Structure formats: structure tokens, C-alpha cells
Amino acid sequence: MVGLLQPVTFNSEVYVNPKCKPSPVPVPVIDLTDPDAKTQIVKACEDLGFFKVVNHRVRPDLLTQLEEEANKFFALPQSLKEKAGPPDPFGYGSKRIGPSGDMGWLEYILLNTNHHLSSTKTTAVFQQTHAIFREAVEEYMDEMKRMACKVLEIVEEELSIEPKEKLSKLVKVKESDSCLRMNHYPEKQETPAKEEIGFGEHTDPQLISVLRSNDTEGLQICLKDGSWVAVPPDHSSFFVIVGDTLQVMTNGRLKSVKHRVLTNTKKSRLSMIYFAGPPLLEKIAPVSCLVPKQEDRLYKELTWSQYKSHCYKTKLGDYRLGLFEKQLPFSLSNV
């Protein structure tokens, strides 16, 4: 049985721009066993940068177990949770998102998925929990890595990307800089008069993100016209989010999508996000087989480490892809 969540003090004076009125939108649903999945996935990545995955073959009992164990961690006394913090960026954090002043109605743990790199804060999280939590986390990470690679392989096939595994190999290799984040948005004693920010608007910098949450609403994505739409929760499925790195490598064909979480209910929300990232020293640039001519490339080459460091120093809502964008020649930029 999951214990009652302990009260946590948050700054709730952060409200949503009233001009952004969310409305429901049909989210593309992709069956990974469908022969037409590759066409559907690429279209969803081009149109929304976002889609739902069903028939993913992840055991339902694993999802239930991990959610229960995560809730047990967040139900611990604050003093015990803080033994795994402050985040470096791994470990336990509360309210503060990154070093640039972003705040939200949440607490979270960020876990290193690379077993070849030690993280004292990741170890500290597991020291506050039963062994079953670590076992569930490690199995879940393996499943998310498998799913992320499968999606990237499908994209490679549909776009005829060469060499083979150009994208998916970046996640498969042991040097892959991926991570798992668990966000807990505590329940509220009273429903607020205005929707409040749980996690502010942002794009994910990695290749793709694989997200799962409980059945509490709150996730929203931003459409091309700037309007925000609510994503109906579905605890049995996963959502895939295109990241900045994949946008760069496809020269803007597949679009990273802004998303956020709002909190306006008395029910707590728990989400788990696997960020599929390339090795730190990997050079990120448009794939040459998609854009043979240098002058047609919208982005210059950077290492993943350079872009990751840049993102870490900026605010959530900043436009961070500008670091990648090629500058127009002086004669053109002043026309």
C-alpha cells in the first residue's frame, strides 16, 4: 500500500498566461506493430513533434510496480528525500528547475541511466528506498532504451537515412548520455482559481523523450500557431516527444515541440520521462544523406556536450536552438 504523500511547501504565485487557452486535440496514436507505423511516426513528428505509442510490449505490472515505488519515495519525510539532493543535476530536487531561476509546483528525481558512469546522487536516491525500486528502475530504463531505439530505427527506415543505425546507435552505445526523470506534482488542498505552472514551457534538448504518467491531467503541447492543447492522460500508453537534437539532425524536417505541465486539480500527478541522448562528444549536425549540400544545411555542427551545457545555462522557455543555427551571409541578412 502506498503511504499518504507528505505536504511540501511550494511557491504557488506562478500563473499561466491567460491568453493561452488549452483545448483538446487528437493525438496521433501509433501501433508499433503496424506495418504502416513508419509513415505514421514521421508524419506525426513533422506535424506535431508528438505522438502516443500503443502495443509497446512493456509489462503492465512493471509500470504499476515502478509507480508504486516512486510514490513511496516521494512520500518519505522531506529530510530523507533531501539526503539525495540538491541535484547536480542528478538526485532529488524540489521546486527549483535548473540553475537559472525557473520554479514549478513539483519535486523530482533525475537518475543517471549510464551504468558506466557513477553518480553519487543517483546512488543516494536508491539508499532511501527498498532494493525493489532500483530493480524496477533499471528494468524500466532498459525498456525505454529499447522503445526509443525502435522509434529511431523506424525514422531511419522511413527517411532512408544512411549509414544504418545513424540515429539509434547514438542511444544504443554504452556512452549514450541518457537519463530518467520522475516528476511528482503534489496534490492541492484546494483547487486554485487559476491554473498554475507545474513545469514551465520548454523543448527537450535530446533526440527523443519517452513519457508516461498516471491518469492525472496537466500535460499540454504547443501547436504551430502558438495555441496550447491539452493531452488526455493514459497511464497504459507512452508518449514520444521529438527533441532539439533530432530536429537538427533532420535539418528541421522533424520538429521539437514545446510542452508544459499545469496543475489545477486536487489529485497528484506522477510522470516518468526517459531522455534518449547521444554520447557527450558526439558531433550533432544535419545528416549528410538528407542534406548533401552544405549551403542547404540550416544548422552548424556542435557536440552534444556543447549544446547540453548551453541548455543548462538558459531558462526553460528560451529559444535554445539558435546556438545551432547558421548565420546568413552579411549581404543576405541585410536585404
From TrEMBL:
<comment type="pathway">
    <text>Hormone biosynthesis.</text>
</comment>
<keyword id="KW-0408">Iron</keyword>
<dbReference type="Pfam" id="PF14226">
    <property type="entry name" value="DIOX_N"/>
</dbReference>
<dbReference type="InterPro" id="IPR005123">
    <property type="entry name" value="Oxoglu/Fe-dep_dioxygenase_dom"/>
</dbReference>
<comment type="similarity">
    <text>Belongs to the iron/ascorbate-dependent oxidoreductase family. GA2OX subfamily.</text>
</comment>
<protein>
    <recommendedName>
        <fullName>gibberellin 2beta-dioxygenase</fullName>
        <ecNumber>1.14.11.13</ecNumber>
    </recommendedName>
</protein>
<dbReference type="InterPro" id="IPR050231">
    <property type="entry name" value="Iron_ascorbate_oxido_reductase"/>
</dbReference>
<dbReference type="GO" id="GO:0046872">
    <property type="term" value="F:metal ion binding"/>
</dbReference>
<dbReference type="GO" id="GO:0045543">
    <property type="term" value="F:gibberellin 2-beta-dioxygenase activity"/>
</dbReference>
<keyword id="KW-0560">Oxidoreductase</keyword>
<comment type="pathway">
    <text>Plant hormone biosynthesis; gibberellin biosynthesis.</text>
</comment>
<dbReference type="InterPro" id="IPR044861">
    <property type="entry name" value="IPNS-like_FE2OG_OXY"/>
</dbReference>
<dbReference type="Pfam" id="PF03171">
    <property type="entry name" value="2OG-FeII_Oxy"/>
</dbReference>
<dbReference type="InterPro" id="IPR027443">
    <property type="entry name" value="IPNS-like_sf"/>
</dbReference>
<feature type="domain" description="Fe2OG dioxygenase">
    <location>
        <begin position="175"/>
        <end position="278"/>
    </location>
</feature>
<dbReference type="InterPro" id="IPR026992">
    <property type="entry name" value="DIOX_N"/>
</dbReference>
<keyword id="KW-0479">Metal-binding</keyword>
<comment type="function">
    <text>Catalyzes the 2-beta-hydroxylation of several biologically active gibberellins, leading to the homeostatic regulation of their endogenous level. Catabolism of gibberellins (GAs) plays a central role in plant development. Converts GA9/GA20 to GA51/GA29 and GA4/GA1 to GA34/GA8.</text>
</comment>
<keyword id="KW-0223">Dioxygenase</keyword>
